[in-house]
Structure prediction request, 165 residues.
Amino acid sequence: MSRSFICLPLLALCIVGCDSGEPGAVPQAEYEGPLGEAIVRQLIANIPDPAPGIPKGYCLVTGPALAPMSVGFAKRFADLKLRFLSRDVLRITEPNAAVDPETGLAPYYIQIRTIKFTPPATWTADVGWSYKKTFEKHRYEVTRKDDKYQVVKSTRLEGNWMPPG
Prediction:
């Protein structure tokens, strides 16, 4: 089966897209800078654990086509001591699941779908996470103060994650 095949967990991440020519759209090539780092850190810090006790890796992707983020960008998160995997190394298993080739376990997918600049110094980012068939989509509002980016608001757009209890 082709590695370019988009499996079910990735489909769950699909967020309503925007045209790349949309006013204020940040080029996808710039997602791996300090702004993207702040967004990914916020997302990772707030991901629930649908399967406690099971080790998980993290697969970072961008844009509607789920382009893999670079190894260099993943290294920015070394302080988190998490296992980061490139989408390109995941193994596709039946029925349509992507797994870590070393552990055989499903990773979390972390997606920055779009980032838009909204003057004077605010960005909105459509982001999402998925783990197997569980997912959430959020819209973050990000500001920059003293050369630091900070997520100041998160709006849940949709998802099927329900906390236990």
